[in-house]
């Protein structure tokens, strides 16, 4: 049993559930205390010790019956529930099926007797369907269909209809035919469930036998390659990253404050001591930045923008103020949403209310709206961050407005997930935008994004 439990734990790990060695030992000890006589208590002990996050509960429920379930489906002996006359009619109809259907007749006989497939039948069909090549649970339904075709289960449904039609012609009543159909379909579903259980168990055991592949650090996975699970993990990582950046910013502030002595401040502060330098005063050059974010929320940029907005608004104590805007074809002010909600909730609302379209990104038009309505948010102390890939669907890029922004702001920075080698390809205007900025940060993953935000806070 311990071997079975270890295989179950290894399969969960292979499916992406985080289970430590200590948690594995807790599961084994818990089952040792509770025992396996009560299946529900056993299941609860395993789930309590192994599953920490709600999103992993589905995987636990998927794998548990594959390792600790019976592969014997509940089936009923149809012949036993029939009268001698009905059995005779049924046997005559079964014998009357086409002569080239011997294997199908055998399958129907097995179905009528309520007998599940034996291990040899399952192993042979699994081998013929190539099940030994399956190593991921996403392949389960596909291999189940292949095995059912190998075992003629689709033809069996047609044979059932033919059998019932022959029984009707032989004089069996409609009520008897309905009852017979229900029992046959129930048994057929039992055989299908047995095949599905066999396929799932085979894949799960193969996953348990494989050494788990080392997963790349999520900080380094490109935004455009993140899975749904990766997205959830990164959202949880954002706050930890913000805490690290906040600590670094506080340390830099302390170094600035306790760095170079300020003679003028010292003289004024120590006049009450007759000029004796008792109180030391230091120069402070670090100023918290004021930010204006202009973010492209088209399909290719949504992940990058989501994480940037969450990170920046988790660090609001490190900036003077932040004004945020999003665009696809036109600009929209979203600052108020972040004033009213927590960062994660605000980002979710913004992305829900601003859906991407198909090839309708227009940064030039959005910049024009910004110039008309929001130019007052920029001063000589403002850092403007344009977040986008510079792809404009061949619309007017409005380089004149970018030049105005650059002159008016303290600095204008681009956050772009694309590498410089992609600039200028297709509808990209980045080769024209880049010279009209104080710098371009490549932000294709969370590590690069965090470093870029840290740099902005450093040079406040």
Q: What labels describe this entry?
A:
alpha/beta, Rossmann fold, 3 domains, 19 helices, 6 strands
What would you note in describing this structure?
The chain is of the alpha/beta class and 460 residues long. The protein has three domains: 2-68; 79-209, no CATH class; 229-458, Rossmann fold, CATH 3.40.50.410. 55% of the residues lie in helices and 7% in strands. A six-stranded mixed sheet has the order 3-2-1-4-5-6, sandwiched between helices. The chain starts with a helix and ends with a helix.
Strands, helices and their partners?
Layout: H1 2-14, H2 21-34, H3 39-50, H4 57-68, H5 84-95, H6 102-112, H7 119-128, H8 140-150, H9 153-169, H10 174-209, H11 228-257, H12 263-269, E1 290-296, H13 302-314, E2 321-327, E3 331-333, H14 335-340, H15 343-353, H16 363-373, E4 382-387, H17 399-408, E5 411-416, H18 430-433, E6 439-442, H19 446-458
Parallel strand pairs: 1-2, 1-4, 4-5, 5-6
Antiparallel strand pairs: 2-3
Fill in the CATH topology of the largest domain.
Answer: Rossmann fold
What is the count of structural domains?
Answer: 3
Overall mean pLDDT: 83
Which overall shape is indicated by the principal axes computed on the Cα atoms? Answer: elongated
Over the alpha carbons, how many angstroms does the gyration radius reach? 34 Å
Helix count, DSSP H or I runs of 4 or more residues: 19
Annotated CATH homologous superfamily of the largest domain: von Willebrand factor, type A domain
Q: What letter string, H or E per element, gives the SSE order? A: HHHHHHHHHHHHEHEEHHHEHEHEH
């Amino acid at each position: 049993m311990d071997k079975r439990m270890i295989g179950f734990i290894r399969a969960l790990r292979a499916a992406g559930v985080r289970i430590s060695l200590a948690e594995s030992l807790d599961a084994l000890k818990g089952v040792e205390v509770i025992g396996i006589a009560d299946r529900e208590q056993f299941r609860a002990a395993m789930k309590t010790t192994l599953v920490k996050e709600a999103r992993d509960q589905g995987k636990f429920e998927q794998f548990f019956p594959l390792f600790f379930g019976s592969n014997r489906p509940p089936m009923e002996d149809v012949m036993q529930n029939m009268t001698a006359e009905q059995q005779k009619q049924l046997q005559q109809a079964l014998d009357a099926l086409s002569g080239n259907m011997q294997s199908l007749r055998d399958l129907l006989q097995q179905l009528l007797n309520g007998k599940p497939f034996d291990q040899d039948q399952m192993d042979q069909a699994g081998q013929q369907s190539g099940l030994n090549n399956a190593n991921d649970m996403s392949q389960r339904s596909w291999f189940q269909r292949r095995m059912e075709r190998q075992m003629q289960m689709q033809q069996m449904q047609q044979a059932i209809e033919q059998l019932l039609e022959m029984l009707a012609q032989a004089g069996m009543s409609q009520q008897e035919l309905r009852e017979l159909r229900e029992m046959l379909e129930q048994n057929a579903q039992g055989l299908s469930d047995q095949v599905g259980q066999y396929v799932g168990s085979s894949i799960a055991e193969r996953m348990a036998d494989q050494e788990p592949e080392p997963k790349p650090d999520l900080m380094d996975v490109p935004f455009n390659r993140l899975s749904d699970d990766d997205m959830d993990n990164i959202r949880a990582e954002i706050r930890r990253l913000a805490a690290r950046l906040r600590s670094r910013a506080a340390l830099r502030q302390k170094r600035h404050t306790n760095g170079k002595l300020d003679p003028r401040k010292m003289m004024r502060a120590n006049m009450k001591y007759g000029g004796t330098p008792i109180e030391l005063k230091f120069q402070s050059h670090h100023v918290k930045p004021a930010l204006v974010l202009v973010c492209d929320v088209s399909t290719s940029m949504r992940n990058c923008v989501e994480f940037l907005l969450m990170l920046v608004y988790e660090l609001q104590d490190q900036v003077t103020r932040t004004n945020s805007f999003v665009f696809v074809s036109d600009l929209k002010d979203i600052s108020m949403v972040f004033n009213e909600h927590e960062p994660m909730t605000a980002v979710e609302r913004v992305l829900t209310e601003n859906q991407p379209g198909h090839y309708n990104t227009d940064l030039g038009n959005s910049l024009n709206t910004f110039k008309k309505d929001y130019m007052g948010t920029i001063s000589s102390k403002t850092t403007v961050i344009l977040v986008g890939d510079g792809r404009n669907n061949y619309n007017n890029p409005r380089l004149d407005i970018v030049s105005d922004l650059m002159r008016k702001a303290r600095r204008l920075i681009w956050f772009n997930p694309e590498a410089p080698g992609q600039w200028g390809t297709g509808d990209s205007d980045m080769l024209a935008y880049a010279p009209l900025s104080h710098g371009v940060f490549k932000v294709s993953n969370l590590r690069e994004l965090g470093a870029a935000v840290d740099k902005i806070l450093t040079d406040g």
